[in-house]
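Escalated from tier 1: uridine-diphosphate-N-acetylglucosamine holo job.
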Amino acid sequence: MKKILIVFGTRPEAIKMAPVVEAFRNDNVHFETKVCVTGQHREMLDQVLDFFSIIPEFDLNLMKPNQSLHELTANIILEFKNVLEVFTPDYVFVHGDTTTSMAVALTSFYAGIKVCHVEAGLRTNDKYSPFPEEINRQITGRIADFHFAPTESSRQNLLKENVEDAKVFVTGNTVIDALLKGKKIIAQNVFSSVEELKSICGSENEFILVTGHRRENHGKGFDNIILALKDIARRYPTINIVYPVHLNPKVKGPVEKELSGIPNVKLILPQPYEAFIWLMDNCKLIITDSGGVQEEAPSLGKPVLVMRDTTERPEAVEAGTVILVGTNKEMIVAKTVELIENDEKYKSMSTLNNPYGDGVAAAEIFDVLKKSEL
Ligand code: UD1
Ligand code: UDP
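Tier 2 regenerated the structure:
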């Protein structure tokens, strides 16, 4: 029996690793699977753990308000080393590009333990965008022994970096597994806040959903985003802008200061995953700088304006669901106006497609590991 340790720390990693945890925990003949959370996020992570009923065996509880990347990285390395000494896994699973992933991969490598990288191979090749994620995932990619690439283009990125072909597996993105599971749960049980959300959002398919958090947008980028949202709110007083505000003080501070009090801008707390799926499924369009939301929206047929200059997720742009608008105020406003006023444009961006897979990524990841052990 092989010992598996699945590690994550933030909201999006938890959502995307939940299907992997389920796949491995369903087989306790071949694998002993434990979960470690660094607690890089606290409230936003716990919302996801609750939704997917994951109880971690190890919780490093490392979040501190406004903590620096240096302190976070150092603390993860020191604390996670202790977990490795207690559990001594054969394989450590990390996800994507967070500081948790990079520091955990490095700590595992120092301890001689194999690293499996889920959502491997995404690249902008711009060191500072997204910051620090581009370098986090490049470092993780150098260390990893198994690379689970969500798409062919992410596989190609790894091959260009001379990663051995036999170690790269195209699986689709586990976010689609999570999204489909979430939709099923919502269809079976109406979640408790749905009526409250309906009254906040107003008519279905008419409100705009906004999220934002990227570090490279802190400061000037967010100032422009705020000006753009004010402009859109003024032009369309009957359309609600619904914005679950990220808890990072560098985001929450300016957003609440500048946007609260505008009647059709609804600032709400970060939403549990089921509620956020409902918001994505029922809005007219999404304005975001999120990675995960760019991947989920095509499966829901929702147009997305991405407030970034680069994306490591070209598939949805190619499929026509996503447009990069940067953090330029005029561009954000112009593209939003176009989607609201031009039906043809709106229809062309709201076709359903699944460039990130059809919900079986976790099963494929599980099969690869199982076969490699036979
Ligand atoms: C982190 C990841 C980013 C990922 C994002 C998803 C890094 C460097 N950044 O960014 O890649 O896209 O999560 O959301 O790994 N906070 C809370 N409660 C929470 C979560 C955050 O209060 O539940 C506040 C804390 O003050 C914390 C701050 O937000 O110190 C920043 O959190 P941190 O994880 O460092 O960075 P994010 O910007 O959230
Ligand atoms: N999400 C959520 N509640 C919210 C906002 C987002 O559950 O209030 C989900 C969203 O569906 C996606 C993930 O969180 O799966 C994206 O997280 P985030 O934007 O924080 O990180 P990124 O994907 O940019 O790394």
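The chain is about 50% helix and 15% strand.
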